[in-house]
């Protein structure tokens, strides 16, 4: 989908690879390439120079201003793209999508613009949502400036509570040097349309109203401390001063081995050495995939923006739409939390991947560039990686037993896949996004959840909603749900959707009169079978989680199932997925989109300390060919091994057939570990 750097799905992972000038004609796939830093700057310069827009720099100044929030690629319309790619039609006009916050007017609003043509923009037009829905100013995502002003307002409002904070935590806001408190925030920001009131998590919770563009009108509306609500800062401060407030004093944190740190502690009972390197991935004869500009090729796979196998398009688009987490709890911050991470810059939170940890040392690393809430493009170094992965399990194998202590033959094909990976670090949580391409024409989309749990302050009442993980820490129960868009084009755009059921039939046994058999029946089908694992059927302000799988006709005005505005206005969002499936359109021989929801319930436990681990916290789905090929296409691989005995049944001598070198050779990556971790404006 086209929000905050999405879809980094298959598109971004292969489009950021090109760099530097070239005299070669542009690859047709470059129509899908992410905007270059030069194009991002050109769009910003053009819009900043339009007097009618009255734009100010994003950083500094008041909130009540007109500012450019986001610039990213506006993909061409599918029909134009396919006409160009497949029929030699005109190259589609290259455009950018720009989001402008118009805060310096009587009725502030958010407006999206199409800007082009690139690389030298000269015009813009307003982009609309389906049904002409407008975006209210209160639905806009948070910016760095608003967070800075929010912190200033919080520090000022908390001044009367400084004695309480110092006594209870040993930390504060005033003249705190290295013992300063900070805060995190939750969303939605209110309980109805138009509100912008946020519960801020310090040691306790503060409800701060920041709806007005003028921070001088912001105010603390409520506070929650140790299970009690207070109507004002003064009320809480006076309760503390009278000595009538039960204090929950936090112990002094240790200088080392803090429970939430990654520092090693303890030892394994088996004595396994962990101070040496373990198993590694290697490429003994070099890389077997090719990454050329916007084109990635591996086995039968070829990726531009669309996904092909053996030259046939399988999908035009495969992208992440949204990741949401719904929490439960006793405290206001926990019970209010309904995270919709597209509104938290999920697609642009692709920070540096560590070689040898996040991706194998052999991986190809790619940079990404975003212009989001900044006054210029920002480079995210090593934001994506591509690598071939040995799966540790054969793709297929068989031992043909002779039942005399030997065998007729053994045959096996090692299991490998090409992995395209990026991450999204949305404050506390880290999502690891994988797309795996297998040589038998199977594609897997998978996400791992890791990072720090979103925890709240422990109270006895909170035990109903989670686990006590530390003396004053409650891990709140929550559900993770991820939504994908799969624009399937199986042997063309005219597809149909079928479900397949197995039924049992009780029939007479044809060779034993009087006996009966129960047999399974299945009709012949062709196409792609899509099998997501079970996902929770959770009802929410957004309709997507209600469906494991929904199939609709593709429309250009339905490019995504969510938007960056849903988080702060889930009650009246500009994009409502339910409307996609209520129009009762035929889905026979049409251009179809499959919308897939996967997810899992997370009940935090002690082993989530310090971080949630990836095993057991991964979900995804597969695209599998089903009667699409005449046989398994991986037979084209030269990697199988076939073993036959030369003297059966003794089997003392064997013939080994293989089409690769007998030994893979040395398997060591010589470069030491390095990591940069910065992302800077360029």
UniProtKB/TrEMBL annotation:
Report if keyword Metal-binding is assigned.
yes
SUPFAM superfamilies in the record: Amine oxidase catalytic domain, Amine oxidase N-terminal region
Q: Which processes are annotated in GO (biological process)? A: amine metabolic process; response to antibiotic
Residues of the signal sequence?
1-19
Q: How is the cofactor bound?
A: Contains 1 topaquinone per subunit.
Q: Which InterPro entries match?
A: Cu_Am_Ox_Cu-bd, Cu_Am_ox_TPQ-bd, Cu_amine_oxidase, Cu_amine_oxidase_C, Cu_amine_oxidase_C_sf, Cu_amine_oxidase_N-reg, Cu_amine_oxidase_N2
Residue span, Copper amine oxidase catalytic domain = 280-505, 546-634
Where does the Copper amine oxidase N2-terminal domain lie? 38-123
Q: Which residues carry this modification: 2',4',5'-topaquinone?
A: 429
User: Looking at the Swiss-Prot or TrEMBL record, what is one Pfam family this protein matches?
Assistant: Cu_amine_oxidN2
User: Needs which cofactor?
Assistant: Cu cation
Q: Which family does it belong to?
A: Belongs to the copper/topaquinone oxidase family.
* Name under which the protein is recorded: Amine oxidase
